[in-house]
Amino acid sequence: MLHIIRSISSAHQHFFHPGQVHDSLEQRVKAIEALRGELGMGSQQLHTLFLSIYLLGISSSFLDHELQDFGHEHLEAARIVIDLILAEEASRKHPLTRLAFGTFVYWDMSCAFLTPTSRNPTQNFEGLLYTFIVEEMTGVLHPTTGPCTELFYILCTLGRYIRHVISGGIQDLDLEILLETKLLNWNLPDPGPSTMWVQTAEAFRKHGLIMLCRFSYAPSLVPWEAWTDTDEQSVLQHIDQLTRQYAVDIMTSLSTIPLTSTYLALQPIPLLTAGAELTVEDSHLRSESKSRLLALYSCSRIPANLVAANLLDRLWQLRMEGGCVTWPELLIQDNMKLRVG
How far apart are CA 339 and CA 213, in angstroms? Predict the structure, then answer.
């Protein structure tokens, strides 16, 4: 783990510039070799193993300026480790288990749009991980996910389902209704957390509702060919109005959090979703969404935040030209594997 921490630190020092990551890559190679050694010896330290894989995984996207590597192989390796922890009662009761599970859920959620899948994630709410989160982590203030681990799990499932739909998969009305119900009914546990967590949670919840509106709305209830032009136009206008209101709500929530707050690090995903839905009439909120992404790039130096800010400019230009495309669709269109968050 020491080598990967050194790798990330070295790259961060040079703003992850591709021409200045030689030392970082050397340390990364040493980290991978050390990890292979642990695996070869049959290491039973599953939680330490997970954290090493996690750091290798998230840093993959930091170092790839071609936006092709988001650490997918590390994410899947981490998933195997999580399953191994879940399989043993002693591992489930380990003091680091909650830390590992919450960290994994947020990481998985941030990658959910990026992996093509032919599998409908219908069974996601029937697995051991979701059961553990509901039974053992409700009300727990996690270092990464705060009191929102279940919410991020719901959003992870939603993201994977939307990628399934975008990739040509068959829509699942039952799953869409379940996701909508879970998003609408999810509440922060009592006693309530800090105001910043309240605002952050609300922004992510509205992000999920926007995604549902854009990818899982009326066409799954009534075939398009059965609609009149008037019906279709009316529904599309309603969707636009609803998603715009959700976007305004997101920006209202996030704007209350100071740019100097560590909570800013959690904002890229809802900022990107909200910014993409705002109209010309919301110019001040558009500016706010972009400026927050740039502020995050300034303090974190992670290139993905700068790419996300530029992506908003492209989406606004496309909308001005009469186009209508969501940011997940644009990523797929441009073959960009952009991991933000």
Answer: 22
